[in-house]
Design a protein that fits this description.
By secondary structure, the chain is an alpha/beta fold. It is built from 20 helices and 28 strands. The protein binds alpha-methylisocitric acid (MIC) and iron/sulfur cluster.
Length: 669
């Protein structure tokens, strides 16, 4: 096998792009034009009318999974009974559950490795790096469609891919050759003008956009970057920006690709649903304050609020799929070289991939970082997902990551601020939140002409002829997909939990070193469902048998983890009634056969309390008929209307009891 049939060097980026098997020309212009061109390309079930709000199916060229969502995705893929994957390229990464403090994670890695070998999937071994960083370096290619069972899959938009985060079951269906369905998106053009000032970074660009659009401003939208400011932005810069488009709730984000790879750009006369302009020259270093990525302030604003005008810090973590490229690491090494990390600060650095770490070792940057006293971690998600490095009690932690949800670091009362690598490194030395512009002139950072390519940690699948011989290695932690049933005609159930706005998937199904090893064991992981909000929820829900959860707006923001739907499914949750949903979570609920209802009048949210008995009659008919579902609150003696906009395909999925049953039924046909 050759991983370097064409090893193009994108000078804009310094990334080696593996473009094996790609077609000579790609005949589409992306975003608006791309979606308009879908008619006729669609296959499997469904239809495409290309109207806003309609569901459309995308043909998927590539898929990626990571281990924390991958075990379930492969259990589902196996349950569909399809042999070899039908994509151009599918890759299974091990990067999340790398802390092996028991047998579970190691067993899951072996399971994924064996499934990959059998079914035609490339396997990126633990230590090879974070899925999005490695995919960008080795597999991504402009113009390809990619879905991944991780919400930060849009990182690929940095090189002109249509890259979308999805639930594991959707990825399993795409691996089997099925289309991936999204709501026909609105397109937002973000025009970048001017040029970033020294020490102002990609992170500041996306934080600025988050401050303008908020964590729900991107729902149902694709963010397309344009303008004269784009040309000077390298691929790592672009990838940081598209990566954190997930925090806007956007379906994906995309930059044009350049003539060094395959030039793709929107037509000059393309029209947009929304336009935003950001003058790069006007930006300054910023941070997202606890506990939301859109709680953005400038460093001077934050310091002004702190005692003595300087916010003291306890910890700095540099890495994650947002900011762990070689370009980022070189800046960090430059700042740390010859200095020592402040005695009150713990600095952890996790380079994004084996390629990045190897090159840092070869060019001396690693010794500069080690010399300053950093704790160098393996190339994996690590602290970003609470796999180690939890801060001290009430600790202030600066992180170059993308999410600062409450409790996500593993310390409930920690205060996490999201910053650029430049701010992180300067602050690690200073002991307080430090503006890197205090460091003086910024040198020009050159990227090498070529990159250290060594794919010895990517295991190719078995040749199809030998696939039958490959044994699937299943550890005792791997349990089956929860039981499903066709949608009942009448539902009478208690409201087992009422929560507020912006509930994240980290609230619904927390992660961290203790819980993540249970990702392939739904009965066990369900015991932690909603633990951040109410520890008694799992027992209550189980004892009720069936129940309904009520929530506020942007419910389910954050991760793509379908466990945030599968654990409620296992606990008997039949419907979730909220003010509004985040995109991937809503889809995951439908895939799990759980009704996603939205209050037609948000004021009705106030009229429901935990413990109320709710009833829905003629449910199958109401779902089949259209958009409205009437809910009776038997305790309060009142009724209220809910919205449930569903495509015909979604209706069929819900009536069947979920996407797995629906797909199996269709495959039989
Ligand atoms: C995250 O950043 O929250 C994760 C962990 O990568 C998740 C996936 C998961 O929960 O496994 C995501 O972003 O989708
Ligand atoms: Fe991993 Fe963090 Fe990126 Fe999620 S956000 S993929 S946990 S590095």
């Amino acid at each position: 096998m050759c991983f370097q049939k064409r090893n193009l060097h994108n000078t804009c980026a310094g990334y080696n792009l593996w473009l094996e098997n790609r077609c000579e020309t790609i005949a589409f212009k992306y975003t608006r034009d791309y979606f308009d061109s879908l008619d006729g390309e669609l296959y499997q079930v469904g239809y495409c009318r290309n109207e806003k709000g309609q569901e459309i199916g995308l043909r998927i060229d590539q898929t990626l999974t990571q281990d924390a969502t991958g075990t379930m995705a492969y259990i589902e893929f196996e349950a569909m009974g399809i042999g070899q994957v039908r994509t151009e390229r599918s890759v299974a990464y091990i990067d999340h559950n790398t802390l092996q403090s028991g047998f579970e994670n190691a067993d899951d890695h072996r399971f994924i490795a064996s499934v990959a070998k059998k079914h035609g999937i490339y396997y990126s071994r633990p230590g090879n790096g974070i899925c999005h960083q490695v995919h960008l370096e080795r597999f991504g290619a402009p113009g390809k469609t990619l879905i991944g069972s991780d919400s930060h899959t849009p990182t690929g938009g940095g090189i002109g891919m249509i890259a979308i985060g999805a639930g594991g079951l959707d990825v399993a269906v795409a691996m089997g050759g099925g289309a991936y369905y999204i709501t026909y998106p609105k397109i937002v053009r973000v025009t970048l003008t001017g040029k970033l000032s020294p020490w102002v970074a990609a992170k500041d660009v996306i934080l600025k956009l988050l401050s303008v659009m908020s964590v729900k401003g991107g729902v149902g939208k694709i963010i397309e970057y344009a303008g004269e400011g784009v040309a000077a932005l390298s691929v790592p810069v672009r990838a940081t920006i598209t990566n954190m488009g997930a925090e806007l709730g956007a379906t994906t984000s995309i930059f044009p690709s350049d003539e060094n790879t395959i030039p793709l750009a929107a037509d000059p006369d393309a029209d947009y649903d929304e336009e935003i302009t950001i003058d790069l020259s006007s930006l300054e270093p910023m941070a997202a304050c606890p506990h939301s990525p859109d709680n953005v302030k400038t460093l001077s604003e934050i310091n002004a609020m702190a005692e003595g005008g300087r916010m003291k810090i306890d910890q700095v973590c540099i890495g994650s799929c947002t900011n762990s490229s070689l370009a980022d690491m070189m800046k960090v090494a430059y700042i740390l070289k010859g200095k020592t990390v402040h005695p009150d600060v713990s600095l952890a650095v996790s380079p994004g991939s084996k390629q990045v770490l190897t090159m840092m070792a070869e060019n001396g940057a690693l010794s500069d970082i080690l010399g300053a006293g950093a704790r160098v971690l393996e190339s994996a998600c690590g602290p970003c997902i609470g796999m180690g490095q939890s801060p001290n009690s009430r600790g202030i932690s600066l992180r170059t990551f993308n999410r600062n949800f409450e409790g996500r670091s593993g310390t409930r009362d920690a205060q996490v601020y999201l910053v650029s690598p430049e701010v992180a490194a300067a602050s690690a030395l200073a002991g307080y939140l430090c503006d890197p512009r205090e460091l003086g002139d910024m040198p020009v950072f050159f990227m090498p002409d070529s990159f250290a390519v060594n794919d010895n940690m990517i295991t190719p699948p078995a040749p199809p002829k030998e696939a039958g011989e490959v044994e699937i290695l299943r550890g005792p932690n791997i349990k089956e997909y929860p039981k499903t049933a066709p949608l009942a005609d009448h539902l009478r159930a208690e409201c087992s939990l009422k929560v507020g706005d912006n509930i994240t998937t980290d609230h619904i199904m927390p992660a961290g070193a203790k819980i993540l090893p249970l990702r392939s064991n739904i009965p066990a992981i369900s015991k932690h469902c909603f633990a951040v909000c109410d520890e008694s929820f799992p027992d209550r829900a189980l004892s009720l048998g069936q129940s309904i959860v009520v929530g506020g707006s942007n419910y389910g923001q954050g991760s793509s983890r379908e466990h945030a739907a599968l654990a409620p499914l296992y606990l008997g949750v039949k419907a979730v009634i909220v003010k509004s949903f985040a995109r991937i979570h809503r889809q995951n609920l439908i895939n799990a056969g759980i009704l996603p209802l939205e209050f037609a009048d948000e004021a009705d949210y106030d009229g429901v309390e935990q413990g109320d008995i709710l009833a829905i009659e003629d449910l199958r008919d109401q779902i089949g008929a259209g958009e409205r579902v009437t809910v009776k609150n038997l305790t309060k003696g009142k009724s209220f209307e809910t919205k449930c906009p569903l495509s015909e395909r979604m209706k069929a999925i819900l009536l069947c009891g979920g996407l797995l049953d629906y797909t199996k039924a269709n495959l039989k046909k």
